[in-house]
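Q: What residues go here?
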């Protein structure tokens, strides 16, 4: 049986399969910043500021002005998993929590019964470009957990499990796991298996078989993606960087979403010209009705109506920040401050510069 179910071109956002709701890939070539960690006015001309997805000059401002990003906006009923490959993000939320993370870090936010948060992209370097590359993935919550208390977890880059496989020709494939066990992680950062997802996440269910993996293959490398362990698991492979790859023997020459039969191992062979990169999203479907209204994802229209009433009444806790788009100063040090005041940071020796 052919392990490839379907192949589709990548759009924006990327198409996803239950239990995932959404996946956006951002790769922005932001310029050097001005003294306010912002884009100079001269580079803002010709943009629809407030809703700029133009990629003019290689970047978008999104809903930010003059700092790019996403000022305060609400969520209810699902989780955001933000994987920052380059650059830094400043998080602020209605519970008073804050964070600066990037360079391989991941923030996993359970919106639950409701939270307002901002995700801003401060341009800290005033002498050189400020590239930003990230995935934002929306993971659904089952009905029983849609109204849990909001919660965020930081996975620092230094702790995320990863391994390198080498083929018979000595060509390498690097695999990192935000969620889900794969390969020989013993001895790697996070040894013993993947990091623990938030307690109310679908990923925390033992039979969810949920995985979020990134794969980077050297030119000409060959590696086999192992079969999933759960019955009913669905798997999507996103080929988003590189010139050409062979997936289960089928050549793919443009960036694509590839749905695979999760029960089968699949050989990946990179072409000989460039590094190839993939994102894998897999999981057993939640298989419940999904009713979405913008940033709210519930199971019924009545629940959406109630959510809108709740948000108008409570603003999901209000907004304790002086503006809608907070940034956290010029110090590039990564940190997370939780609603209870607890602070965490990665090891000082491994701080990543902006």
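A:
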């Amino acid at each position: 049986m052919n392990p490839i179910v379907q192949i589709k071109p990548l759009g924006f956002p990327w198409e996803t399969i239950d239990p995932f709701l959404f996946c956006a890939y951002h790769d922005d070539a932001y310029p050097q910043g001005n003294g306010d960690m912002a884009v100079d006015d001269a580079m803002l001309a010709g943009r629809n500021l407030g809703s700029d997805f133009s990629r003019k000059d290689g970047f978008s401002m999104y809903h930010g002005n003059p700092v790019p990003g996403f000022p305060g906006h609400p969520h209810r009923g699902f989780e955001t998993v933000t994987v920052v490959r380059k650059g830094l993000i400043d998080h602020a939320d209605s519970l008073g929590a804050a964070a600066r993370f990037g360079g391989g870090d991941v923030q996993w936010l359970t919106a639950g019964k409701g939270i307002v948060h901002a995700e801003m992209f401060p341009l800290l370097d005033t002498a050189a470009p400020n590239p930003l590359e990230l995935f934002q993935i929306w993971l659904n919550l089952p009905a029983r957990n849609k109204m849990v208390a909001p919660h965020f977890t930081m996975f620092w880059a230094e702790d995320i499990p990863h391994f390198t496989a080498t083929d018979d020709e000595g060509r390498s494939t690097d695999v990192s796991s935000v969620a889900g066990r794969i390969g020989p992680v013993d001895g790697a950062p996070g040894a013993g298996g993947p990091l623990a997802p938030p307690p109310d996440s679908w990923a925390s269910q033992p039979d969810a078989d949920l995985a979020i993996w990134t794969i980077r293959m050297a030119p000409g490398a060959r590696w086999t993606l192992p079969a999933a362990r759960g019955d009913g698991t669905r798997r999507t492979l996103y080929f988003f960087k590189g010139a050409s790859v062979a997936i289960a023997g089928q050549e793919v020459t443009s960036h694509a979403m590839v749905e695979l039969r999760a029960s089968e191992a699949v050989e990946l062979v990179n072409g000989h010209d460039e590094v190839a990169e993939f994102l894998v999203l897999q999981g057993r479907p939640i298989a419940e009705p999904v009713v979405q209204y913008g940033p709210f994802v519930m199971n019924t229209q009545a629940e959406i109506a109630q959510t809108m009433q709740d948000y108008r009444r409570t603003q999901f806790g209000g907004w304790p920040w002086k503006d809608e788009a907070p940034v956290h100063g010029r110090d590039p040090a990564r940190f997370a401050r939780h609603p209870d005041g607890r602070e965490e940071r990665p090891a000082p020796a491994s701080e990543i510069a902006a």
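A: Context that may help when evaluating the design: DSSP finds one helix and 24 strands in the chain. The mean pLDDT is 94.
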